[in-house]
Amino acid sequence: MTSRTSYFIALGFAICSFILCLISFGTGYWYVSTDPDDSLFNSIGLWQACFNGYEHTSDLIGKAYYGCWWIFYKEYYYIRNWLMPAWFKACQTLATFGVVFQFATLVILPFACCQTSNVRIITLACFTTWMMAICQTIVVVIFGVMIGLDRAWVPRWDLAVLGWSYGLAVVSGFFAYFSGIAITVYCMMRKYDLLANRDPQKRLPRI
How far apart are CA 126 and CA 177, in angstroms? Predict the structure, then answer.
């Protein structure tokens, strides 16, 4: 009988990863100003940006932006191309896929525990778990690297640092990897049990 310890470890880490991922996904503090009162830029997340009187050079109407707005709101229509460069859109897309894989994993894992006749569901759980970890990793790497390379993005980059939303995304990625390792171990144990039940001669000798 396969021990379910690794399964419950995988489930626990998957739940924690999902919660942290949702919080980081929905909050606007991936990149924040260290001095909001003396900076035109306050903070930005995947779906929200906050400014304090910023005027963009390519904005022909000379509009000053104040407050926090949804990044697709009409308020940012004239600066959206600058606000959302290609690498930022890639982060948004991969982060969305990551949330989908996170949700799929939490739906599949309970069925994996009840499935004893084959390992198809468990294998699918392994796939979704590793995919959510990979998506999360790519997102935090791209974002962390590009804010250092794209100096034209957000004003006064020298007064900005990575925020707590980004930190939660990093921790969520680690939890996703821990969950992936645990569910993979459980999957291998289940496969061995099924193989041993079909052919008792292949069962490992007990010491």
Answer: 11
Q: Which residue has the higher pLDDT, 48 or 117?
A: 48
Tokens read off for 118: 């084959």
Would you kindly state where each structural domain of the chain is located, as residue ranges?
5-27+80-155+164-200
Average pLDDT, the chain: 85
Which residue matches tokens 């407050």?
67
Q: What is the mean pLDDT of residues 120-133?
A: 89
Q: How do strand 160-162 and strand 64-70 relate by DSSP bridges?
A: unpaired
Distance CA 104, CA 98 (A): 10
What's the first-to-final CA gap in the chain, in angstroms?
Answer: 17
pLDDT mean over 167-173: 95
Judge contact between 47 and 70, C-beta under 8 A.
yes
pTM for the model:
0.84
Cite the beta strand spans of the chain per DSSP E: 31-33, 41-44, 48-55, 64-70, 160-162
Task: Give the residue carrying structure tokens 């962390």.
Answer: 144
Place of tokens 């830029």: 41
